[in-house]
Automatic annotation (TrEMBL), chain B:
It comes from Effusibacillus lacus. GO terms for cellular component: plasma membrane. The lineage of its organism: Bacteria, Bacillati, Bacillota, Bacilli, Bacillales. It holds the Pfam family SSF. This is Cation acetate symporter. Belongs to the sodium:solute symporter (SSF) (TC 2.A.21) family.
């Protein structure tokens, strides 16, 4: 096993990957599903064509919700990513503690 | 020629050339040329991403599409925005951690083979050229209508300007031209939207009500479902929109112009706010144009509706406002084509010339020379193609670029980061299959062939060509035999690097 392999085996690196995937995988599945509901529903049904607020129908409201979803998920990711950064620092710390160098 | 419009255009040219002059003084090394030395800050890069991304297709095209086709036009706005989640969550940070100057650097960090760099460079050149021809054709038509210049003169003027920015000022000049453009575009769009909304007592619901009353419900309601194929085409378009951005080389290199993954991340969130606010205003522009200018006048000026936004500006604010909005459209096109030239030039000079032809032996001076000549060559090539493509419909060229990006680049980018077994053969097969598959399907689709005779029924091939790219990656890898221990170790290395940003262990 090379140097990189040893880093990959450390507890803090494994924790980093575990935390990253437990956020990114569900978040990605969520936004893909949320995104494709709109074109699928408008392509094959008229359920979103009913008026909701004045002349604005549910299709437009759903579309606006996608904007809110995108911004919301961006900021959620930013908050999570700050924690990922802390774990990255721990990984680097662990390498230097063992007398190695990480640049 | 409209004198006000002319002076605005000259103002923008002078401003961008001044930027280039100051950037040129710093533009000494290849790192400065390709990625501005990696010294762009988060908010600067955020604005530049927005400036690089919101092309003539966004500003002129979507406003026109909503004015003429209503809700269907808004799909572009949604897809172009949500695409940034793919970029932020999946692609950007590993790319920043593994890349140096180009998208190919990231893939070559794992598979160090000439075939990989050549295929990646080929994809970048193909995507950037299609995208650029679309911008140039659109620009030529618009300048001709606004300033009365001949189509070919307009294309050549824009071509010369983009070459000057890139050759003299490199990535730094390109970045600042994009920042200036993003500020102008946001300013112009906000001003236009506020003037429209002022007529509806600043109530967007009232705008929708009045549009529905004047033009009919079909202007705001999604079209009723027709055939299965038509529905599939719409879903396929949305797939290419949401996945294409993460494979567009000129957007991806923007993440290499910042110092680290954290800055890349911040710049994307900043860009997502700007881009989202812009797209949120597109229905106001589109419906405003349909309400005030009228669908018939919009179609008369340009059958695809590309002049809806300038026409709306003329109706609401007279000649001076028309001149301002046209100048904004002009700046928009300049900034996007400059970004395209630099990404294509880096692909050719850095990936193909330096790494494949010269095997990494070219000196710094030789590389700079190659990058400059590549920029000139690519600009001339695109200008010649754009002059010949005058009568082409520009929208399918942009859709083609997104589709090729999603089919040819995205599978390889994603699998390079996440798939342990992935190997060199799989990567090359995927890139070539994605490129040939998407371009080939478009050639036999109703975009090119008469609708009744088209061999492939969908206008947007993404739903077939994107899975094809992934399938080719899988088959290429599995059929080419077992992964060596060395290759597995290499994956461990880039996996640690991609996730931590550590470049070297000592």
């Amino acid at each position: 096993m090379g140097d990189w392999g040893r880093v990959a085996q450390t507890g803090s690196f494994q924790e980093l990957i575990r935390q990253k995937s437990s956020f990114i995988v569900p978040a990605t599945i969520f936004f893909f599903v949320f995104y494709f509901i709109l074109p699928v529903l408008t392509a094959y049904s008229t359920v979103l064509n009913k008026k909701a607020v004045g002349a604005i129908n549910w299709a437009y409201l759903y579309a606006f919700a996608q904007f809110a979803m995108t911004w919301g998920l961006c900021h959620l990711y930013m908050r999570k990513a700050n924690k990922f950064d802390e774990l990255v620092n721990k990984v680097k710390q662990e390498i230097t503690d063992k007398g190695g160098k990480a640049e | 020629m409209n004198a006000t419009a002319f002076s605005f255009f000259v103002g923008i040219i002078v401003l961008t050339l001044l930027i280039t002059y100051f950037a040129a003084k710093k533009n000494k090394s290849t790192s400065e040329f390709y990625v501005a030395g990696g010294n762009i800050t988060g908010w600067q890069n955020g604005l530049a991403i927005a400036g690089d991304y919101m092309s003539a297709a966004s500003f002129l095209g979507i406003a026109g599409a909503i004015a003429l086709n209503g809700f269907s036009g808004f799909f572009y706005s949604i897809g172009y925005l949500v695409a940034y989640l793919v970029v932020l969550l999946i692609v950007a940070e590993p790319l920043r951690n593994l890349g140096k100057y180009t998208m190919a650097d990231m893939i070559a960090a794992r598979f160090n083979a000439k075939a990989i760099r050549s295929a990646a460079a080929l994809n970048t050149l193909a995507i950037s050229t299609f995208y650029m021809i679309a911008q140039l054709v659109g620009a030529g038509a618009i300048i001709k209508l606004l300033l009365g210049l001949e189509y070919s003169t307009s294309v050549i003027i824009i071509g010369i300007l983009m070459t000057v920015y890139v050759v003299a000022g490199g990535m730094l000049a390109t970045t600042w031209v994009q920042i200036v453009k993003a500020v102008l575009l946001m300013g112009g769009t906000i001003a236009l939207s506020l003037i429209v909304l002022a007529h509806f007592s600043f109530n967007p619901v009232e705008l929708f009500n009045q549009v529905a009353a004047k033009i009919g419900d079909k202007a705001v309601t999604p079209p009723a479902p027709t055939t299965f194929t038509a529905g599939l085409d719409s879903i396929s378009l949305n797939l290419a929109l949401v996945l294409g951005t993460a494979g567009l080389p000129h957007i991806l290199i923007r993440f290499l112009s910042v110092p680290d993954a954290k800055t890349a991340r911040k710049s994307i969130v900043f860009a997502t706010w700007i881009i989202g606010l812009f797209y949120l205003m597109t229905p106001i522009l589109g419906y405003g144009a349909a309400y005030f200018v009228g669908q018939d006048s919009i179609k008369k000026a340009n059958a695809a509706g590309n002049l809806a936004a300038p026409q709306l500006a003329a109706y609401l604010g007279g000649d001076i406002f028309l001149a301002f909005i046209s100048a904004v459209a002009f700046a928009t096109i300049l900034a996007v084509v400059a970004g395209l030239v630099i990404s294509a030039a880096s692909a050719f000079a850095h990936d193909f010339y330096s790494n494949v032809l010269r095997k990494g032996q070219a000196s710094e001076a030789e590389q700079m020379k190659a990058a400059r000549w590549a920029s000139i060559g690519i600009a001339v090539f695109s200008i010649v193609l754009a002059l010949g493509a005058k009568s082409f419909n520009v929208s399918y060229l942009v859709a083609l670029a997104f589709c090729v990006a999603a089919s040819a680049n995205l599978p390889v980018i994603v699998l390079t980061i996440f798939w342990k077994r992935f190997n060199t053969t799989g990567a090359v097969t995927a890139m070539l299959t994605g490129l040939i598959g998407s371009v080939g399907l478009i050639l036999i689709s109703p975009n090119i062939m008469p609708a009744a005779d088209a061999i492939f029924p969908l206008k947007n091939p993404g739903i077939v060509s994107i899975p094809l790219g992934f399938l080719a990656a899988y088959l290429g890898t599995v059929l080419s035999g077992k992964v060596s221990e060395q290759e597995e170790e290499k994956y461990t290395e880039i996996f640690v690097q991609a996730n931590t940003g550590i470049k070297q262990l000592g």
